[in-house]
Amino acid sequence: MKEKISIGLLGMGVVGGGVAKILEEKQVLLTNQIGVPVDITGVLVRDSSKKRSYEFSVSKFVETSDDILNDPTVDIVVEVMGGEHPALEYILKAVKSKKHVVTANKEVMAKHGPEIFALARENNVRVLFEASVAGGTPIVSPLMRDLVSNEIKSIRAIINGTTNYILSRMALEQADYGDVLRDAQDLGYAEADPTNDVEGIDASYKLAILSTLAFRAQVKNNDVYHEGITKLSSKDFEYSDELGYAIKLLAIATRTNGEVQTRVHPALLKKSEMLAKVDGVLNAVEVETDLTDNVLFHGPGAGSMPTTSAVVADIVNIARNVAGNVAYPDPVKLSEKITVQSINNLISRYYFRLEAKDQPGVLAEIASILGENQISIESFIQKNVNDSKGTAELVIMTHQAKEEAFQKALADIEGLAVVVNLGNMIRVEG
Question: Which residues are catalytic?
Answer without folding.
Answer: 206
